[in-house]
Fold each of these.
Amino acid sequence: MSAPLAHLRDVGDLDEGRVHALFDTTDVMAQVLERPVKRVPALQGFTVATLFFEDSTRTRLSFERAARAQSADVMTFAKGGTSLSKGESLYDTVATLAALHVDAFVVRHPAAGAPHQVARWTDAKVVNAGDGRHAHPTQALLDAYAYRAAGGRPFDATKVVILGDVAHSRVARSNAALWAMLGAEVVLCGPPTLLPPALAALPGVTLEHDVERALEGAHAVMPLRLQRERMDAARIASMAAYARHYQLDAARLALADPGAFVLHPGPMNRDVEIEGAVADGPRSLVTAQVAAGLPVRMAVLYHLLVGKEAA
Ligand code: CP
């Protein structure tokens, strides 16, 4: 039994060996989910708290299901209906839940670094479920796993294009780091106002403003949600202009490798960053990504709370 993972705050908490071990455990968890009774006792006696200060559909529900499928107890904390409305701080909220014997916190927060702070305040394990524009490591793991499970090329023979609103995207940052760690060629593409030049410093990552040039020969294409709620300036002329220049439509997808897969982390703005027909088309992994989220998050909780080998 190898040592449990300390925390999963960002992709930097992983190395390539741990990622492949997580994928191996995910394969086992996926088999569990094929059984008539989709539950194992692996995390019996552990308590997982989901601590969400921002809205979520996929991440919160799949983490809660991932914990319950391994027989852990689950505590759900969300913005509404809690003492946050009375001014309780993040520190006091964490201290309160920790006093109820939480073994792992799954944290989503609008402030970058909040999960790192939670990890300093508690002895429990911490998983980052999305912090500001910074990181969303389990989204990157499930995206890469879904690509691999669909029959994608080996990562070190893969060109992945992450397209669109990179500036506001924690998913882009975590995916760029993870796919580059696995040996892929990573291209970040978007208009200059949505593509921070500093990201060129990421190892294994290049920036490209020309979408047609970026897509040439790509094996995986990941359009990103245009995050209108995080826009702090007039970064695009209009939605229509953005869609005209950067939408992943069928004509643009035809520039990629014929076997290219399309990934979208969700939620989607259909017919803005992705044409509806592409989202629903034969190369789309959108539903497979959501499905992969469950065994991947089961594996993450298992690696945090028990250790590396699957039960
Ligand atoms: N991809 C993602 O994080 O989705 P949710 O916001 O629904 O969790």
Note: Residues 56-59, 130, 139, 265-267 surround phosphoric acid mono(formamide)ester (CB under 6 Å).
Amino acid sequence: MLEIVISSRNPGKIDEIKAFFLSSGKDIRWLTCRDFKNFPEVAEAGSTFFENAKLKAKAVSKFTNKLTLADDSGLAVDCLNKKPGIYSSRYAGKNATDKNNRDKLLKEMGNVKKIEDRSARFICSMVLWDPKKGLIFNTEGICEGKIGTAEKGDKGFGYDPIFIPEGFNRTMAQLDQEEKNKISHRGKALQGFYSFIENF
Ligand code: IMP
């Protein structure tokens, strides 16, 4: 069976990746940080989502000697000059919680009253790294939407409770995992990845 390591410590991301493949018919044995001792902590030192995804995939593939999938993702808010971007997970500081990050974002957007001025998008860069060949596949997914003025919903993770995807009047945190995977940045990147891995 095909074995792929997910280079992430984020349980929300790991669940979404596994859930996407549950209904795909492709048998993959997913391995995560829980399956290895001393799983590397990779510094996100790049200046783009793609660079960071490559750094995470390469380091973990080198450590495990296995095919490794990495996702680097985040939120770009137009009225904040595309912030928090690659700093999404540490927007409110190094040890910030998701709630700290959402509170900071809502505060910074406090003066932006009109919903049409609150546009944003989630971006996901996904990389598959082979320990012998290096980068063998990469793809990107984008999900457009608006930032709401208050939190709604308790599903998902990160900025989901304040992100309203285009075409919806609910936040991402009010969608179940299957609905989110159909429209999300990660779900779209996973569709591209699935096309590649289908005949692997
Ligand atoms: P990464 O681990 O550096 O890729 O950090 C991704 C960060 O972007 C997360 O910690 C969240 O703050 C945010 N993010 C990425 N994808 C999502 C999502 O699907 N929903 C909500 N927030 C997300």
Note: Strands lie at 2-6, 28-31, 68-77, 83-84, 119-130, 134-147, 163-165.
